Protein 1
Amino acid sequence: MIIVIQCIDKVGIVAAISGVLAQQQLNIISMREHVDTQENRFYMRLQIEQHADESALERAMQAVLPQHAVISINPVPDKKIVVMVTKEYHCLADILIRNYFGTLGASVLAVIGNHATLQDICKRFDVPFFLVSHEQKSKPEFEHNMIDVIKQHQPDYIVLAKFMRILSPEFVAEFETKLINIHHSFLPAFVGANPYKQAFERGVKLIGATAHFVTNDLDEGPIIAQQIIPVNHSLNAADMMKAGKEIETSVLAKALRLVFEDRVFVYKNKTVVFE
Amino acid sequence: MIIVIQCIDKVGIVAAISGVLAQQQLNIISMREHVDTQENRFYMRLQIEQHADESALERAMQAVLPQHAVISINPVPDKKIVVMVTKEYHCLADILIRNYFGTLGASVLAVIGNHATLQDICKRFDVPFFLVSHEQKSKPEFEHNMIDVIKQHQPDYIVLAKFMRILSPEFVAEFETKLINIHHSFLPAFVGANPYKQAFERGVKLIGATAHFVTNDLDEGPIIAQQIIPVNHSLNAADMMKAGKEIETSVLAKALRLVFEDRVFVYKNKTVVFE
Amino acid sequence: MIIVIQCIDKVGIVAAISGVLAQQQLNIISMREHVDTQENRFYMRLQIEQHADESALERAMQAVLPQHAVISINPVPDKKIVVMVTKEYHCLADILIRNYFGTLGASVLAVIGNHATLQDICKRFDVPFFLVSHEQKSKPEFEHNMIDVIKQHQPDYIVLAKFMRILSPEFVAEFETKLINIHHSFLPAFVGANPYKQAFERGVKLIGATAHFVTNDLDEGPIIAQQIIPVNHSLNAADMMKAGKEIETSVLAKALRLVFEDRVFVYKNKTVVFE
Amino acid sequence: MIIVIQCIDKVGIVAAISGVLAQQQLNIISMREHVDTQENRFYMRLQIEQHADESALERAMQAVLPQHAVISINPVPDKKIVVMVTKEYHCLADILIRNYFGTLGASVLAVIGNHATLQDICKRFDVPFFLVSHEQKSKPEFEHNMIDVIKQHQPDYIVLAKFMRILSPEFVAEFETKLINIHHSFLPAFVGANPYKQAFERGVKLIGATAHFVTNDLDEGPIIAQQIIPVNHSLNAADMMKAGKEIETSVLAKALRLVFEDRVFVYKNKTVVFE
């Protein structure tokens, strides 16, 4: 059983939580805790050996925790996701493979592409692919088409696996805290378009990728995971893009695992991640 | 205030500990906990905002914890160490620098060298250097000379900063759990002498270094930290040794920081490290 | 055009090679060179801007190089491979995906499995899968069945993508210098079976994976690439295995790219790799 | 003997260079070469087994190379440097240690500090320390004082080892291509002041350091080396700064080694580095 808690910090909060568990003879296998003293905020992730009545346990917890505590007892272990893509295959393929072999920690309900490029790979894995072209449409119309598809599937998360169109604040607001993006740079370096070209021109010696939740500001949401690889003068912008795809795949996979295992807490524009 | 606890695991142990703290109105700033379910063993490191009467707190803790619990409340923040060296300077110099600028988390009481090579650098930092030559002496005699110097200083830890003589089980027994060594390979690869030559001959693509507590078996004690760097065909054994010194310095520095901050627990031949 | 050369070293060898190229008005875009002074051996990889008559160029090169020089001018850019697997999917799936999207640098002609587990994923990618069970067969018989399948496809390389049976010296001899294996540890640590269990029991802080050519000695062939990830006390042997799969996939992918791009030279038990 | 060459690229350039060497019976031990096809620029670093008359060799080289080729034959192996500091010790101490033990690849002629904080550590190593305060002086006056000290020592390079005042374009112009700086972030992220505070507020999961040549634009010169370390929610800005110092030290040490070994070429705003 997994329990995740986020609330205002106060003296005795760990005692209160663990008291409730001890009372119910529940054994803590692993406990991760963080207090953000600047924000006066408390975060906890508990793994419990036994199972217990969830609603009774939640009531008991709420009774001892500060007001507005966010408690999730045994959050759904197999999340449901919709994936949005454009033409690049690497992140989507990795997700489809893990989904197929049951190691993703989530089920892919559908893939939305604004190009047909990745339709065939989805078909090979029997995953529904929805082609929602942005062509000859207004942006609101385009986004409404996608929103329709997403709502129809009611996913826990929407994964932007190299979806290359900028989403409007309206779209983002619709799915707040549910949108996970992979950005092809080491944020906050090289925000925006063509980060590999920017990296090449700047002559950097490392390139990176960043998985983050999406908020209104472009490439500005809470960061979940980042990773880098060394590069040198022998790589041109295209080589960097190729090398970068490897870490994009790997950092998105890591971020999704962390989120799906309920190891990521969001508060304001930052995350607490219990790796 | 720092509290570290190691004991047998049982249901309610976190509640018991945090109950004692809550009762005394002590606020937990950070808590790291690990249960080794295979060994049924519980480890905890707590950082508390306030100060409290230590012996009263320890009594209260002992009263609620399982028998034979090892509790350390506010372990001495500035450890005392003796460093043992041979001829290579890199680890010792790093320790002396941090010691001089007050960022080591420990005080260097003395340096013992079986060669005079590093005497001058110690003198420049006003750190006592004891030359204990192994020449024209039996091993027991040599070790007794060193034991005398060490005992005279009563250090919390003895750091083998590239001390290149093998120590007898008797010596090790004398300072059990206090001896920290840097081994110049990624253990358990390349145990014993000349690991860089071994690594070169095997044609490995990474070389490493390992900081560990010393037990009777050569290079076999509990590992505290390990690190690697990439190498390739262009490096010969001497180049690898040179490159390796950088990570030896860095991994020993990391291990010492972790130990001095009371983040390392030892049980049997393994460590729990709350980084 | 790619040119790779391996031969005995002598004074003037670079002048000789580049003289031939200059004479034919061929421009060197990139040149990597290594002299192993201990073995008196010369290695070179050249990328040439223009195309040229390959056999004429090879004759001109042979005329100026030491005897027994191994020259390969414009080695086949799209290698052909056979993949051997058991039950674990991660390395195979990565290869199949890259093969499908044309980014592997090689074509997968066939997959041989000693279990049927991975038959379906091959079918989804229209890659022929040959089930060669080891059950109720002598080892020679089992291996002859596999050799038959392999020979029928005439691959440039045979990739052991988590093939979990030990191959006989006879099998290895049949395909010398063509067999590439992924070993699930940081060789030479944890040779043999169950490296993650060994790593867990030793309490290491890093685990690794090694891609290497296969020779007669178990896990002893020339190393192509190695990689590690940090681990800690919170991972048990099963967690380490799970974490390890990620680097197994990644290090095999890297090794294959290097081999397929003709960046890897083998001499005795070591490799020269021009990354 | 080391030879470094930078010039316009043309067909036959490698043949020309190696022809000259072969003619003089000089054996190439290692050769690194790079052609920047976009800029049509050629870079080479050669290590030669034998010694030869340098001026004769240079004349022979100039005769076969394109106009304006920059050739350096056997560049001074022990560079001379002046180090500029403010209050932080970590980079300076590392340089002083390597200088003292003869492994820096350069000699520290003098240290200039705008505070007296690091005077004592220099004295302990018998390295002249010049206190040039910026207080109660105009910026031009302050810089002229420093320029005087520097010119008096005629260093090959000036290392800004955590020198925390911004230098004017005039100062930079005075020592063009000789100024090496360590910036405490992963450029181009977090340009300017307080990068650790910026990194903390952005909630990044990696922090970095960048060693670069200094040009007129703040933090905008050619990058020599970069490195990162993982961070997480448990570190505040001060912790990040502390952790960052470790990589600042390490990345500056690496960059200096590369520069002092004549492995770094600068062209426009980028470097070619033969590691």
Note: Residues 2-73 of chain C form a domain with the Alpha-Beta Plaits fold (CATH 3.30.70.260).
Protein 2
Amino acid sequence: MQSRHLIDLSDLSVAEWEEITSLACDIRENIDSYYGACRGKILATLFYEPSTRTQMSFQTAMLRLGGRIIGFDNPANSSVAKGESLKDTIRVVSGYSDIIVMRHPVAGAAKAASLYSRVPIINAGDGGHLHPTQTLTDLVTLRHEKGTFSGLCIGLCGDLKNGRTVHSLIKALAGFPGNSFVLVSTPYLQVPGYIKDFLSAAGAPWQEVDNLADAMPLLDILYMTRIQRERFASEEEYMSQRGVYVLDSAKMSMAKKDLIVLHPLPRVDEISVDVDDDPRAKYFEQTEYGLYARMALIMKMVKASDKQLCPLPTGVDIQCSNPNCITYSETYIPHIFRKKGDILVCDYCEERTLL
Amino acid sequence: MQSRHLIDLSDLSVAEWEEITSLACDIRENIDSYYGACRGKILATLFYEPSTRTQMSFQTAMLRLGGRIIGFDNPANSSVAKGESLKDTIRVVSGYSDIIVMRHPVAGAAKAASLYSRVPIINAGDGGHLHPTQTLTDLVTLRHEKGTFSGLCIGLCGDLKNGRTVHSLIKALAGFPGNSFVLVSTPYLQVPGYIKDFLSAAGAPWQEVDNLADAMPLLDILYMTRIQRERFASEEEYMSQRGVYVLDSAKMSMAKKDLIVLHPLPRVDEISVDVDDDPRAKYFEQTEYGLYARMALIMKMVKASDKQLCPLPTGVDIQCSNPNCITYSETYIPHIFRKKGDILVCDYCEERTLL
Amino acid sequence: MQSRHLIDLSDLSVAEWEEITSLACDIRENIDSYYGACRGKILATLFYEPSTRTQMSFQTAMLRLGGRIIGFDNPANSSVAKGESLKDTIRVVSGYSDIIVMRHPVAGAAKAASLYSRVPIINAGDGGHLHPTQTLTDLVTLRHEKGTFSGLCIGLCGDLKNGRTVHSLIKALAGFPGNSFVLVSTPYLQVPGYIKDFLSAAGAPWQEVDNLADAMPLLDILYMTRIQRERFASEEEYMSQRGVYVLDSAKMSMAKKDLIVLHPLPRVDEISVDVDDDPRAKYFEQTEYGLYARMALIMKMVKASDKQLCPLPTGVDIQCSNPNCITYSETYIPHIFRKKGDILVCDYCEERTLL
């Protein structure tokens, strides 16, 4: 792989993630023949904030490959509570394990951890910043259920402002020919401007609508997300709009015969239970595709890797302007940026700072 | 098996549970030869209320068969905390695993889960309602220690009102010839009327006494249970009666030479520590028999099963009269009942509702 | 082994721990060939107080040997919370497992547990009392990094009063010829008198100093420990002395070329991050040596052991004078002492009581 770690989906070349989605498909068909592929290997799941489902999905992936698992899901019980730095924890755990999956509440934590790890790190979420294996899951699901990444009309509905998996999916699919996007949300929960810019720059047609029913007939794919009551601008707005973003049988009846409905789960009430029995509902299958995607990813990353510590990059004496960046809480980390014109982009949290 | 799931002991025919107790005996003798029987299989332990001991017992059973384990014991950290329904959790986890063990605080939860699971479900307790593997454990212990299920005088002592394992054991043993029952408890903690009716209908002699010492000489088996201070009608009653239900060396000296003493554990102080060294005390061995029973059960259930979702039964528009029934908290579940004369018996929680 | 259990390092003869450190070295070189050495065996980690790092280290050791793990790290969820005695928990878990690792907040708990266990017990810490596998880790590190246990000048710095790993290491090394000791701490945090007596009796030269910089040029080994702000006699003393006990690059520049720096981790700020890149810093490697040490120990103890319960020793009617001794909280344990002149030494917590 071009990188030893998977922090962001951009760590994978298109060839690499096509290879992984293809391997995931083969695992799905022949899962038993992959038992033993990680025999004797240990996956550490370091969950600095609990997320049972995500942790269980990675654990299952490793166990189905014949590997073993260690880890924690409650930093209150760990050395962290004694004041240990991220660097020290990673140095120690990368001495115990062959691959690390990490979830952390602070933006850039996985990238920071990768500097000090002797084994590959997979980012399983860093504070709403990135969550590349969810996007990989979505792509494996599309590959299977649609057989193509091109020529699709993709609807995304719900909280499009805060959901980074939505942003990643848009970026991944905008690069394929013939895709168009319908963005369904309240004015308050629209996708950020830079995503719209990205779509326009990629030449992908897109439109914003505020009503799911209107969008239904157009779609080949409908990607639903949780939209939380507290995310509406006011209680009044919530009361007036609840139901507009709930997918139910009535709305399904307006859709194409070969629509597929996805959702990263858990859902609350944004999809009615009566949709579950519709053969176009694929969100439960999606979690299984996620398992195969993670198996493929772990296999590839464990195989590619010798235990080694890479040289630390040299930092600069500039502080990132995002106060939730990992460089604030872990002060010894070298500050590194990419320069884009007169803007510095933080290598950890992607925040843009004007010089 | 006649059912894919083990929700209640009645899911097993007598032939089946005799087969399982027999297999458990063979596992006890030849445990090493069963390592590998569940190679590559995954057991999920979903503990919606924590019970380390029960969870550890199932985990050990699966590991001794060469299988692997995933799961949670703290719903506060899980998707449940985000408002996920039982159905969704089960749909997802049954995509990850080959068999699920589940404990839940609400009556009927395991039955409800079984409707949405693609893999077999074992009920490890649903709110004091049912706990069939404890009864299986008790039966394996009897088979080993007594060599028979017939012709026994069985004493049960302590909280006979709330202890469902006691009720299940009585129902299982009442069907064998020549058994008689001595029920030792305070008036306030007596077995419910329907259990007495069951015994009478089965033609099994039974008596209620309020003094353990009086019963001791009669018994072939003494099944002790935890009796909690707060379960007495008043503090006065507790103070006047404490000691009456404590098994100690003095009481043991009145008993038969081949008595066996059982207890589902953990105990608090209802059995004195000095009884532990009496060779008739079998409660620690009992936990090991429980391990073999669970190994036998898991082996049998995993082997029998293909991953599949059964068609959902059709519900009726009647609400169960038990407010602690799972149909209240998980509202999408079809309401199903068995009709007995003019009474409806809820399929989830066994509550009887008069039409 | 001379004992089935490892409660204190003195349970191992010198020949035995040399055998274990030697095995640990071989495991380090050929780790893959040890996978399978504990196939089918189960390690239970019973952590009555959480310590994720220690637990993870033992779990990794067992998994790298091909064994399996069960256990708990949160007694609030366990049968303990229902009032179960240590004895009962150990009786049950030793029926499930092949070896137990135990951490407990009360002095003597591991020794007490060993009386009731059918499988070997490893003490992973009992209330600051003993922690023998940390000392084993330190010895394996020395063997590797120095190639000898003799002729060394050993500095120990920080909290030398409360750190039992420091005391154990001193006692283990004082027995080898040609070793001398430099004890660096505040007056308030000096090693206890009995350790100084031990050193003098063993004929090992030692000195106490209060300044780390002065000691640096003398040392072959520097063993750093966490020194907590609240451990200083007053805030003033802390403010005036902070920095005196912090190891940084400046102090490293005064040291020998072949010094090695150890630390049991986690560290807080007693070693500057800039020391990490000094090749003499061995504290991260030390955690890996700890893994090999634990693998060697588990292998040896599992192999040596049949499941059996040893006869209980006979106690005396004397109460230990240490109110934090396990005999206070677990009242059924026989009280046993070693007699030294007119002093009784408690077999559980090592407290000395004058007759």
Note: The two ends of chain A are 33 Å apart (CA to CA).
